[in-house]
User: What shape does this take?
Amino acid sequence: MTVALSGKDIAARVEEKLPGSLEDSGDDYLLVKADSLVAVAEFLKNTESLNFDYFNFVTAVDYYSYFEVVYRLESVEHNHSIVIKTRCYDRDNPAVPSLAGLWQGANFQEREVYDLMGIKFEGHPNLKRMFLWDGFEGHPLRKDWNK
Amino acid sequence: MEVGEERRYIYSAEEIDRYEGQLIEDLKARSTEPIPDPDTWLEEEGKRHIMLTTVDTVINWAKRSSIWPVICFPACCAFEFIAAEGPRFDLSRFGMEILRASPRQADLMITAGTLTWKMAPNVHRIYNQMPEPKWVIAMGACAISGGIFRSSYAVVPGYNRIIPVDVYVPGCPPRPEALIYAVQMLQKKIAREKVVPDLPEFLQKGK
Ligand code: SF4
Assistant: This one.
């Protein structure tokens, strides 16, 4: 079984290395500030004892007042996992930095989130629609779509 | 052919030749007269009464007795269709056991499943590739109206948005019996079709 690492423990290690990069942390997640997302992800990937080498998924949730982008990372070597989240409060132009440079697996999934939720991933190599056709109006998984 | 006890089942080439020759001679001896051609029932055919019918009836009978469906199964209803095709429900009783992978050989489209807008141009194209005459059975709630996915951004709310539908089968999914009933309904519908055009007016009686 994959062990879900405690968010609090990891948060302490991240804070030590990158102070001020976290907004919050819980038992099973880290809430990262959007502008330090790449730095935190890089730390999680490249630190010897953490070694999150497998990008499991990215998805997004619409909470009306903000969007939350959720990532789940796993380490094949240590068989543990962590969930990291980040929020974008600008509803008209939500954007978070892309992690496609760190994990190839993020490439298509970030396109999917962009397609259905309309969140821009800055620095993505090929950010265009994935499932819907060009010219489709809006992003249908947003809660206020079709209202 | 004289064969000693010690040489039974062991033949020389010459002995085999002689044995085969004997077979031919025997058959020849039995075949001096020609066997009469089997044509007795031809007499009977003439004795049966002559049937009068209309061209419409004959053409419609031919049309409805061999409806071949094209493969168009985008979602779960397909499994009920497969069950209907299988030996238990046996759709082939109605002359339609052959599924055509090529729309050019098909007469009927059974739309077994949810259609998404992304798939819609392809289904429309398949329909256009089918030769006339052609019919469509909308199978299942999704095919009729979009079903449970009707409000989705991705789903076509009913096949009749893109192609004309002849028979609707409700259900989610409809049971194979329902599908078979729909096929019978379609056959009844075809039977009432008018194939032969009316005579021009000046040839019609009393005009
Ligand atoms: S009608 Fe029901 S069974 Fe048929 S395709 Fe739709 S959801 Fe599936």
Notes: The interface with chain A takes residues 118, 153-154 of chain B (CB under 8 Å). The beta strands of chain B are 69-70, 108-112, 135-139, 167-169. The longest strand of chain B covers residues 108-112. Residues B 75-77, 113-114, 140-142, 147-148, 172-173 surround iron/sulfur cluster (CB under 6 Å).
